[in-house]
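Q: Structure tokens for this one, please.
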Amino acid sequence: MERYGVVNRIVEDKALIEEATAFAKWLAKGPIRAHAAHKTLLRTSGPLDTMRTASLLPCEARAQG
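A: Here is the predicted structure, written as tokens:
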């Protein structure tokens, strides 16, 4: 998962809740529509290990309207 950018850092157990909360707050302040489009692309494009650029283009076009 790290190679897909899902994991961006490792924290100590005792800092996990604080770090996760801070990250969630930062994420919530971000571009909501872009986050929604990204989630849609991930859900509709198939397994991460079989993704190909050509197969993502139709998904990207739909996401951009």
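A few notes: The two ends are 29 Å apart (CA to CA). The chain has a mean pLDDT of 78.
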